Amino acid sequence: QSTWGVLDSLSSEMLFKVVFLLAVLGRGCHGDQTLQMQLLQHWDTNWEGQFTVPLKTDVLGWELKINFSVPVSSIQQWDGTWLVQGGASGKEYILLNKVDKGFHAAGTILKVRMMGKFTGSSAPTATAIFTDLTTDSQTVPPIHVPNSQQTTKYNYEELLVKSILFYEAQRSGKLPANNRVPWRGDSALGDKGDNNEDLTGGWYDAGDHVKFNFPMAYTTTMLAWGYLEWKDAYVGANQRQDFLESIKWPLDYFIKCHVAPHELYVQVGNGGADHGFWGRPEDMTMARPAYKITESKPGSDVAGETAAAMAAGYLVFKSVNKTYANELLTHAKQLYEFALQFKGKYSDSVSAAAGYYRSGSYQDELGWAAVWLYQATGDIKYLADAEANRVSGAGWGDSWDDKTTYTNILLYKFTHKDIYKTDIEATYTDWMPGGSLPYTPGGMAYRLQWGALRYTINMALGAMMAADAGLHADQYRCWAESQLHYALGDNPSNHSYVVGFGSGAPKRPHHRSSSCPSRPAPCGWDEQKNPGPNPHTLYGALVGGPGKDDSYKDDRNDYVKNEVACDYNAAFQSAMAGMIHLALNNGLPTCP
Length: 592
Description:
This protein has helices at residues 3-8, 12-27, 156-169, 213-229, 231-236, 240-257, 271-275, 300-317, 322-341, 346-349, 351-354, 363-377, 380-389, 404-415, 418-431, 452-468, 473-488, 512-515, 525-529, 566-584; strands at 33-36, 38-43, 46-54, 62-68, 72-77, 80-86, 92-97, 109-118, 126-132, 211-212, 258-260, 263-268, 290-293. By secondary structure, it is an alpha+beta fold.
């Protein structure tokens, strides 16, 4: 018999107790306190009382489960919303804080005052259980570091595990039974296309809840690249299966988005409406329109990047699930042909994307997609396309919008032509000390203010890939290590820029769902303004990074330096895999 079948057979009073118990067990108890109501006054059949809760920690959400000695009714109070009023006995009540009554600072006293009617000859007494809904019961999986590997300054395996957890926290749609992030639940189950196509799934982009497919596809490609290059790192860290499940999540979504050979949904959710909401994705009620590219409204950049992601996905899954891999490859080929045949920038076709992820060019994605299809198929026509469409010269800095250097690295790997070597070397001459890029006083290569670490880490991964291809191995690996270690703690403040890792790690990332207390407590703009840490640790998330003078403040309102994003973690996670690979193979460089 099902759980709900059993509940149907229970009395109303017993049902109240069981449902309350299930609710508590479902989210874990955090600082439960048993309280006695102070009866302030009573007259005739009226009463007034108060519960007093001394707080040892900051509270962002709370619940009060009250058991009165006699039946009561017509209760007035100003702090919460009733989840249960009376039950079968008239004595059982559950009160959940109002959205603007959740935050109370440590060291203060929370007072919940109420008045109402009672039945009988004696004024009521009451006992209550106060539950702090602020935090959660999340645990981090065991970290496995092979005994045979070189000793490392930082625990790269821990970072790999936690970065995968970050992507799990970003999931949209119906979550699986093995969800490891207890403060996340099913969300955006109504995401649909113009013709009612199912567009559920994928990852939320950053600290918000829009699904921007262009950076999501880039993220997927970069994660796959790191896995394909350094699979032994995932195997050694016992993360191979978790990685496969992680990357399949966006790939499944891209399959849904590709509804016809020349039709691809590229965004779900409107940035303006989404950014006007501070809360959990599980609680969203705004309309979530879907936007697509077509022959008349092309997007060679996002079609090309999605083709690259699916071709890379084919390579990841071809030895795991050949049927699924072949499906990905079919979509990749169709999307590449779509990108080639109907050229244009997607942000010119989809104005809703232009204010957030405006494309600079589509040529680099055509070369990038072609080189991934060459890897997937071995078909020389794709290599020829990649060479024809690649962007020449020194790279500015690779990211979701620019794959210049990454493409040159792969072309050099497959052809060993000097033209690609020359451009890669020119890129890293610019990026390394003495080049054209400024450095912070603490030693971080500084390309751009917004998400500064993102560009630095992206280029560090490129250097590691170029080293693997035979270019200046020690020099490039040492430079990459210096930039990665800056993010992990080798900086003037000796703090980590990764949430939940290392010393002085960020505790207030600009991220909506982790800033909310545990459900069912409400969440709103008060949580954004909360001066304390986010109630939930967004393990593994790389924040934007410092200013050009190494300055940084852990401030939730600073979305330039303290937001997180799927694309920030992509090269970062793959770089951690690369460092583990070097340690496993006694290949860590000896750096000055």
